[in-house]
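[stage:ingest] chain + small molecule (6-O-phosphoryl inosine monophosphate)
[stage:ingest] validated
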Amino acid sequence: MSTAILGLQWGDEGKGKITHLLAREADMVVRFNGGPNAGHTVIDRGVKFGTHLVPAGVFYPDTVNVLAGGMVIDLGILREEVDTIAAHTGWAPKLLIAENAHLILPYHRLLEELEGSGAHFGTTRRGIAPTYRDKAAKIGVRACDLLRPDGLVKRLEWRLNLLKRQWPDSDEVVKLDAAELTEGLMDVAAPFIGSIANAAAAVAAALDEKQNVLFEGAQGTLLDIDHGTYPFVTSSSTTYVGLANSIGIPEPAVSRRLGVVKAYQTRVGEGPFPTELEDEIGSGFQQRGGEFGVTTGRPRRCGWLDLVALRYAVALNGATGLALTKIDVLTGCDEIKVCRAYSVGGRETDRFPLSGEVLEGCEPIYETLSGWRESLEGIDAVGHLPAAAAAYVATIEEAVRTPIEIVSIGPEPEATIYREL
Ligand code: GDP
Ligand code: IMO
Ligand code: MG
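[stage:predict] done
[stage:export] tokens:
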């Protein structure tokens, strides 16, 4: 059985918690997109981690953890992360780094600052867009280049010349040196050299052998480079439609596509957000839900659940089931709203528009549901939820015609209700 965990909103849905839970049973966990822009919270044996690059299988001794070709990797961050987790678990995680994954180099972060794109889009400033841009422009550096340092220094010389022609007035750019950069890179890469391999073949073999393979998505559907709220998106394919390409496997045998959806909506950074609440209800979600970025610490914008966007995300990912998270954060609301449709230019629509400008002009049309005041702590079955909370679960399920398989009622692994469907 293989399962893909996919974010259905603007990221931070709780993918880390769900992947960590399902990884207990996995032989292999594959991160297939993005880089250290991701921040996945995992609570492992009472200790909280924010992972950026490593798949959640690193918390289990026998699990193979693949960083697939669709990722962009910052080796400095990877090294820190692996060391921290190894100190916690007591073993070095089994890693497999795709030879065709691209590397984030110091000048990628610098470019985001020089171009002002970090501030304009509210990015995570991890050099994500400049690295993916170099990949598309065929001037990137890949993990396999670390296996041939002589070739690497030549590639970097060429790349840096280009950079210096573009930014002749930047001291930081002008002083970049290919030999120095290569040396620094080889140094930080040293523990990983033996882990660089053909990841596509390894994943294909695991699937062929019917191993339990888990695919850990990063970001969320609405941040997808092609299918999200462009240009307020990330630079990779965040959805199931991009998974096979990012790894390099044919039509994958991923029978279970579990979409993760938060009980309300959040977004970090700039971009349209029709159901945003800039009032005490929104700040209540922010406080109770701890809605502060794992990667940047920025407060997340909060709002009511957007069912128009959710229907779109479920369809795009071909989600076979849902994991609904953070329903406990809604406890104490007198009433709960869900956005059923948009009003745009005097017309009502239940279609999610791909143009950010059109989405900016969309006014949410809400349905109001009853809230509940009882704590959800310790509840182990949907049937034991307060009636209004159970009705909320049913409303979402009916609206997107997809079963909710897991209901998460707290950040800890134990605070999880599994449903027999
Ligand atoms: P990810 O990027 O999708 O992995 O999500 P993040 O880790 O960035 O954000 C999710 C946040 O919600 C983290 O702080 C989690 O610990 C927390 N969380 C996950 N599930 C639940 C839940 O059911 N209830 C509450 N209260 N917090 C949760
Ligand atoms: P996880 O995996 C939430 C957002 C940034 C910014 C936009 C572009 O934890 O769900 P980038 O640095 O990727 O060029 O920034 O995308 N963003 C995320 N928001 N969760 C994430 O990852 C995100 N990764 C990127 O805030 O608005
Ligand atoms: Mg996150």
